[in-house]
Amino acid sequence: GAGSGSGVGSVYRHRWKSVLPYTVGFEMTTTRVELPTLIEGEAVGELSGTGRWRFFRGDATVVTYEWIVRTTKPWMNALAPVARPFFEWNHDVVMRRGGEGLARHLAARLLARN
After folding, report:
1. How far apart are the C-alpha atoms of 50 and 36, rounded to whole Å?
2. What's the predicted TM-score (pTM) here?
3. How confident is the model at residue 1 (pLDDT cuts 50, 70, 90)?
4. Among 25, 30, 80, 101, which is most buried by a count of CB atoms within 10 Å?
């Protein structure tokens, strides 16, 4: 959806393919925008929770992403106690690839990743 002029209320549908053989789908609704330093949204679907992007400028632009979500897929929740290391590894790979893709899209150099 379009949302307000600031972007609040905008809805984005995502389907993430992972390294492991599964996908995760969710909708992200922008709930807060404080340009140029903060964008926040709520996820619903197979992931549920909050995402927060913070932007800092200095010699370089630093972007941090706080992703506080839980899974809603019953099979994933059932396996989490034993499969957590694999899920965490998979998440790190997906996030690293996302950062690298964003840097390419912006024609920027990715200086660090966590």
Report:
1. 19
2. 0.79
3. low
4. 30
